[in-house]
Specification:
Number of strands of chain B: 6
Order of helices and strands of chain B: HHHHHHEEHEEHEE
Number of strands of chain A: 5
CATH architecture of the largest domain in chain A: 2-Layer Sandwich
Radius of gyration of chain B: 30 Å
Strand content of chain A: 15-25%
Structural class of chain A: alpha+beta
Distance between the termini of chain A: 31 Å
Helix content of chain B: 40-55%
Number of helices of chain B: 8
Largest sheet of chain B: 3 strands, antiparallel
Structural class of chain B: alpha+beta
Oligomer: heterodimer
Number of domains of chain A: 2
Number of domains of chain B: 2
Largest interface: A-B, 84 and 90 residues
């Protein structure tokens, strides 16, 4: 439910993979296919000479080095910043407020309800259950709307549809308390705690 | 006969069931996102690799710019070596390098192109076990996803009680559209395949999974001794 930029992730990985495939295939072709090797020699010799000329012509005034290197450094810096910015976007989207209402009911004054209310209420309600060793609740904001994510890690063998129904009852009770309809994602998952714990025998 | 209200209660409970509003577009979207991978791990790996490579190149470019001796490789020599390629490096090294880069690229490329489904199912059967409330069944705003491992454990339990065997004698594999229940019967005690398949299918039907998997029961030829 977090707001990782999935489309962008996919494009970035696909592009990176494509570039690596092209480089790798090119290197292999240079070794394996003699025609490719000779074609590369023909082309690269000329290209190298013209590049050297460009470097000579673009030397900085005062006998310095070519400013090509400065441009190269700038391009590399931009690439690094872009890639780190993308990595920083992963897993974002946690919210602190479950709902905010400005001048609720026509009265002056704003009401905000923190996400911790829902998180602690659900966690406390499920704390005593022997068939549920792991519960985590988090508030997320996805597309500008707050939503609750309840992650359950039951013992092995617990029927997920019955468990989810009982948790849905809790959520309905919470809605009545908060006075708001909240979108909720219930994720029944396998975690380290549920895998290591003994199977549920009697319920 | 004298209790005309009893069957009526069952009927009203059934009558409550159809009031399940369709999930809101918001919830649909969330459920769809939950069942595919965000590919965050691959992006972080990409970020580290690109940052290290570009960072090193940046260092060498700046060192060259201020006229200092290079740190590891003089960039101008590197470009020259690239231009003279098949001859500037041993063919074995070059081929190995190409193969490794190709494989890593393939790994990333497939990671992007493949659908990236997580081993999960959307579960709609939770509404049946809810207490009836005046606000109806909140299927428009509550969504449930279940890891396939949880489904497998739950179905294995159901199959085990139906077959009356030990926990170790049942293994369930859940994939997107198929549930395979492997049962090793106790030696000398035949298991009822129909009974197991009926029980497991009933459980799958109650869960109302999306996509709905088919059930296949595999009873092993050899039994387990002393179970």
């Amino acid at each position: 439910m977090n707001s990782s930029p999935r489309g962008l992730n996919r494009w970035a990985i696909g592009f990176f993979g494509f570039v690596l495939i092209a480089i790798g295939a090119g290197l292999l072709a240079l070794v394996v296919i003699p025609a490719v090797a000779s074609a590369w020699r023909n082309w690269s010799g000329g290209a190298w000479n013209s590049l050297q000329q460009v470097i000579e012509q673009t030397r900085l005034p005062g006998g310095g080095e070519s400013w090509i290197w400065l441009a190269l450094a700038a391009v590399l810096l931009v690439i690094i910043v872009l890639v780190l910015a993308l990595a920083a976007q992963q897993g974002k989207g946690r919210a602190t407020l479950l709902s905010t209402e400005v001048d609720a009911g026509g009265e002056p004054g704003d009401i905000s309800i923190g996400g911790a209310v829902a998180e602690q209420a659900v966690r406390a309600a499920l704390a005593g259950r022997p068939d549920l060793p792991g519960v985590s609740v988090a508030t997320y904001e996805y597309r500008g709307k707050p939503a609750l994510r309840i992650r359950l890690q039951p013992r092995q063998g617990v029927a997920p549809h019955l468990l989810a129904g009982e948790v849905a009852d809790l959520v309905m009770a919470l809605e009545r308390v908060v006075g708001h309809q909240i979108p909720v994602l219930i994720h029944v998952g396998v975690g380290a705690r549920s895998r290591l714990s003994r199977a549920e025998r009697v319920r | 006969m004298s209790q005309p209200t009893e069957p009526a209660r069952g009927e009203t409970r059934n009558a409550v069931q159809p009031e399940t509003p369709p999930p809101s577009p918001f919830l649909r979207r969330v459920l769809r996102r939950e069942s595919t991978s965000p590919r965050s791990v691959a992006v972080v790996v990409l970020a580290i690799v690109v940052t290290v490579l570009c960072g090193y190149a940046l260092l060498e470019a700046l060192v060259h710019l201020v006229g200092q001796p290079s740190w590891l490789i003089e960039p101008q020599y590197a470009v020259e070596g690239l231009a003279k390629l098949p001859d500037s490096l041993s063919p074995i090294l070059l081929g190995a390098l190409g193969a490794v880069i190709f494989m890593v690229g393939l790994f990333f490329f497939l990671g992007a192109v493949l659908p990236g489904r997580r081993p999960r199912h959307v579960l709609n059967g939770w509404t049946a076990s809810m207490r009836a409330t005046e606000s109806g069944i909140p299927t428009d705003r509550i969504g449930v996803v279940v890891d396939d491992g949880v489904l497998a454990a739950s179905l294995a339990r159901r199959a085990r009680t139906a077959a009356n065997v030990q926990r170790e004698q049942v293994m369930v594999v859940v994939s997107r559209k198929l549930v395979v229940v492997n049962v090793r019967p106790t030696s000398g005690v035949p298991v009822d395949r129909e009974l197991i398949s009926g029980a497991v299918e009933e459980e799958v039907r109650r869960m109302q999974l999306e996509p709905e998997p088919a059930v296949r029961i595999v009873v092993a030829e050899s039994g387990v001794v002393g179970a």
